[in-house]
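Please supply some protein, with fold tokens.
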Amino acid sequence: MAFSRRDFLKYAAMSAGGTMLAESSFFSARARERKEGGKVRYVPTTCEMCFWKCGVIAKVVDGKVVKLEGNPLHPQSRGRLCGRGQGGIGLLYDRDRLKVPMIRTGPRGENRYRQASWDEALDFVAGKLKEIAAKHGPEAVALFAHGSPGTYFNNLVRAMGSGNVAYPSFSQCLGAREVAWELTFGQGPNSTCERVDLANSRVIVLFGTHLGENMHNSQTQEFAEAVGRGAKIICVDPRYSTAASKASMWLPIRPGTDLALLLTWINIIIKEGWYDREYVEKYTTGFEELKEAVARYTPEWAAQETDLPMRDIIEAVRELGRYAPNVILHPGRHFAWHGNDVQRGRAMAIINALLGTWGRPGGIWLPPKVNLPAFSETPEHPEANNDPVVFGDYPFAGGEGLTQLLRETTITGDPYPIKAWFVAGTNLMKTLPKPELTRKAIDNLDLLVVVDVMPTDTVMLADVILPEATYLERHDGLFTITTREAGVAIRQPAIEPLYQSRPAWWIGSELCKRMGLGQYAVKDSWEARMRRQAKKWGIDYDELADTGYISLPGSATPYITADNQPVFNTPSKKIELVSSELEEEDFDPVPRYEPVEQPKRGEYRLLYGRSPVHTFTRTVNNQWLWELKKENEVWLNADEARRLGVRNGEIIRLENQDRVMSEPVRVRVTERIRRDCIFMIHGFGQDSPVMTRAYNRGADDQNLITRYKVDPICGSTGMRVNFVKIVKEA
């Protein structure tokens, strides 16, 4: 089914006016269908074009999805969808999507496969897994996963007796931030949707957080509302991002010196008395030790270190102080930068604590109360015979595991061999730093099984490819949504799976049966399981399927009151300005600044981010979104371009510090970036020729990330430590 760019823009414009939907006849899918005479179907479900889990209403005509709308009842969408959400139809009907199970017939990487039936493919995988487990032990089987599909293969791998499960979202994205806030407040700011009260904030500070480019739907809506009513925006970023264009202050900081600025702000807040004395006394511990530790971080010193004017350093933090506690220093996302990331996150959390933002309007709202009973239909997984390798010697590595440790063990075989990988919903070749090591690890495997929708670079290295149904073709669970309130959302199919694709729950369940682990398989269907879960939760499943979202009454308690006090799950049961847990592990209990390596003259720090119409490699082949953004460019400072004799739109290459060369890529000459940095959108430069739109479009920044710094506290991989030179094409 083909859709033109004109269709896409028309539907996107209709979605942009999503408030109309809330006032329209949408009370339920069934009511809307009756109003239109039963000629169409409307199916509420949950988007998976990114992790935000927006509520979607799919319009189905003659068995085809023809339109997607934001669900006005769902707090993550509020009747609107972003461009990527609108692109869900492009994923569903992508001509290049995986259609049938395939088994590799030639050397790895040569794209030689034969079609197989599901029975043959699943029997082949089960047989190889049994063989590997018998020879090397069950811990020789590992899983890399992202998103909903990982749930079902996590169940399989753990049922076999392996704990070697890792999610790139911890190592390469949010792990350091979550650990930092847990060490400070006893909990994170919410890994899916940060509890930032932007709608009521008077000052919003963003450290490299690209609202308007990452397009996290409800948060972007609130950011726009805040800008519209005059909230002050302070952007600390070496690049003049979309968010910076809305700011009252842009601080183009020298990359790697964010912690210097933060510690200086803490010093100024304390020295000038901007902190909330009553709040600090009641809810925090360690104030005097913090005060002493940060006294040496002066504005004069910070100006030299950060390359920012001293007056801007001082004025920015005073703006926070003037309007506190109705302010927020945003916790940020994609937090793995320079290897000192937990302590950077700690400093950000400490500032929020000093200003009393936790549990205050315009700051960070308190988590809603959720009292849904646990639900499971499978026995507990067996204890692994050998300890998993995914936590290493990092005392605060999260339960999501460390991807680079799985890769390292696969290469070395130490402390034991890992010979099989399941990869579900993640493109490791474009996700992990130092991709040459990822390829080396894959070549050491006896079995690589990839479950995905699209033929990505990682998929086309697999021994067995299992085509997954898209989110518009499957049941996938009841999602607990926690914003200011708590509620339950549903993912259900708008149409039956196309081709021979299958839902991940079915694939995982069938493998359990073939592995002799039938007790871990789904009893009947995932929908039937969801109905039993809804019954246990006291939710009307048919009503949920009809509306897409049901709120939990009485769950919203966003702010501190006399009857609603915050709970801090730290050892002291208070906000720890000085971390007792870090001190016990011989780490600095108060963040301490240490300089990071800076580029030499003629070199540029490699920065990367995303486009508002793409979710990295997940969407670059999507017809609708590809037409809007077909390739990336290299942002280069205009003064540097003149010095190098490079013109806007010229084709160049980048060469990193390890002599790795990029693909040819266009230059975008701009004043909107520091002279010592370049910037690229991540996800382009696909090597898989069967991604016919994305193949060889733009340049792959991941190939240039041949170095990374590991955070000693949590083990996350800081990837903004690579430097490049500009090489002019002949």
